[in-house]
């Protein structure tokens, strides 16, 4: 989303964010369906993702178990995403916590779209901050380099704090 907005503007970035949220519905529902039939295997697969630990899984599962309504679950999952807990843990954990697949599918866009739209907004802002460059600097390349540096800094910080 950020790179699309960086190259093509806010509207294109927002369309990409909506498409990514739709993809998250499909992916999250598929992972939850898999977890319905093979819960241990689904969680083991998720645990193999870099920077996901058994403690992180247990922490999110405890947070999800305390949510007493779909709205509370949405808030819990948004909070989790802001603290670096991947959504795939929630998708793999939902069936074991008694969260119906249809509920997970309905709340997924509410949880994922704010993050995706924020990324699109960041790309659009960077695009607006870098429009007046001489032609020889090729603005798209400069913007991509700035974005790559920004993403690199983000992930260095993430790995330092979350681990891996």
At a glance:
The protein is mainly α and 164 residues long. 79% of the residues lie in helices and 0% in strands.
In N-to-C order, the SSE pattern is: HHHHHHHH
Rg, please? 18 Å
Instruction: Tell how many strands the DSSP assignment holds.
Output: 0
Low-pLDDT regions? none
The backbone outline, from C-alpha atoms, is elongated
Distance between the termini: 25 Å
Q: Which class best fits the helix and strand makeup? A: mainly alpha
Largest sheet: none
Average per-residue pLDDT, rounded, comes to: 89
How many DSSP H or I helices?
8
Strand content: under 5%
Helix coverage percent of residues? over 70%
Structure description:
The chain crosses the membrane at residues 12-35, 142-160. Keywords: Membrane, Transmembrane, Transmembrane helix. The protein has 164 residues and is an all-alpha fold. The chain has 8 helices and no strands. It has helices at residues 2-8, 10-37, 39-47, 54-66, 70-82, 87-93, 101-129, 139-162. The chain is elongated and about 55 Å long. It starts with a helix and ends with a helix. 28% of the residues are buried. The model has no long low-confidence stretch (mean pLDDT 89).
């Amino acid at each position: 989303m950020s790179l699309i907005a960086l190259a093509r503007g806010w509207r294109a970035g927002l369309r990409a964010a909506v498409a990514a949220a739709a993809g998250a519905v499909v992916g999250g529902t598929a992972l939850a369906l898999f977890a319905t039939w093979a819960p241990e295997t689904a969680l083991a697969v998720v645990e193999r993702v870099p920077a996901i630990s058994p403690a992180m899984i247990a922490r999110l599962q405890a947070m999800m178990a305390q949510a007493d309504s779909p709205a509370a679950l949405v808030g819990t999952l948004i909070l989790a995403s802001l603290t670096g807990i991947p959504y795939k843990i929630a998708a793999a954990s939902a069936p074991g916590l008694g969260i119906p697949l249809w509920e997970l599918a309905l709340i997924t866009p509410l949880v994922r779209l704010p993050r995706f739209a924020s990324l699109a907004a960041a790309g659009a802002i960077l695009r607006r901050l870098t429009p007046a460059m001489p032609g020889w600097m090729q603005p798209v390349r400069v913007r991509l380099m700035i974005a790559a540096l920004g993403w690199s800094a983000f992930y260095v910080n993430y790995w330092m704090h979350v681990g891996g």
